[in-house]
Design a protein that fits this description.
The chain is built from 12 helices and no strands.
Length: about 280
């Protein structure tokens, strides 16, 4: 069950990142984040009402609130890093986010077996290579590295926090709703400040109504990924769930290959193969 839900997480996050990347080519990144998360919050609100999730309120929701504050910071740092530096550096570095939940799992007493340790090592190496690391070229700005590491730390922290936010399915709906509402409030405040400073918050043609279905998909895929990761981490070792969930760069690269006809570099193809081998080792371990 852990492997299934963690792999579902990587699929959903990979597709959400692919869709978000396409949308930010035509729209301000902060607007994409706020609108997509607003749609997700509205849908989750309806789900919470329908399932009676309000009864699951409790102290654990503070973890969801914290995840909601950290998430937008991580996402905006990631987009800013992509704008400043080469994706071949930013993407592999961002996968260091897996270190946070893995460390938490080890601190809490999880001790993966030899086969799982091998699988973790192979899978992480595969994910980094699948990002297509830039091995030569101009030096990368220090700001790009710092922003990428901030994003990685933020993503990893959200991984760890959302796992602790609930223990039941209906409670998970409520936790995800609280997280998304916090995302919208924090992102909306940042969007307001950005607009006051004169930055563009909408594309030249006004609100992108034609992009609304894509924005909805990005927001809902992201929230679904948070949910499947929480289930994976609660039903098995966090160390395994976190590594399998971090395979999303492979999905993004394959989506770019399938929909945009982008050719995978040899190092990316090798990384995808290693990630698959690592996945099989973890699943059988």
């Amino acid at each position: 069950m852990t492997a299934f839900f963690a792999l579902a997480t990587s699929l959903l996050w990979g597709l959400a990142d692919f869709g978000g990347g396409l949308l930010t080519r035509r729209n301000p990144a902060l607007t994409v984040v706020v609108v997509s998360q607003t749609i997700a919050a509205a849908v989750l609100g309806a789900v919470v009402v329908a399932t009676g999730g309000w009864s699951e309120g409790g102290p654990r929701l503070w973890f969801a609130f914290a995840a909601g504050l950290v998430g937008p910071v991580a996402m905006l740092s990631f987009y800013k890093a992509l704008a400043l530096g080469p994706m071949g550096v930013v993407s592999p570095l961002a996968t260091l986010s897996v270190a946070v939940p893995v460390t938490v799992g080890l601190v809490l007493g999880e001790r993966p077996g030899l086969l799982q340790i091998t699988g973790i090592t192979v899978a992480v190496a595969g994910v980094v290579l699948a990002g297509g690391p830039q091995l030569r070229g101009a030096p990368v700005q220090r700001q790009t590295i710092v922003l990428t590491l901030v994003a990685a730390l933020g993503f990893g922290t959200v991984f760890a926090l959302i796992t602790e936010a609930s223990t039941t399915v209906t409670g998970l709906f409520l936790a995800l709703f609280v997280q998304r509402v916090t995302n919208v409030v924090a992102g909306g405040a940042a969007l307001y400040v950005s607009a006051r400073r004169g930055a563009a918050v909408l594309p030249g043609g006004g609100f992108p109504w034609r992009s609304l279905p894509a924005l909805a998909f990005v927001g809902l895929a992201d929230v679904a990924a948070n949910g499947t990761y929480s289930v994976a981490a609660q039903h098995g070792p966090v160390t395994v769930a976190a590594v399998l969930a971090s395979l999303y760069p492979v999905v993004t690269a394959l989506a770019a290959r399938g929909f945009l006809s982008e050719r995978l570099r040899a190092i990316q193809a090798a990384g995808a193969g290693l990630a698959l081998v690592g996945t099989l080792l973890l699943a059988t371990g």
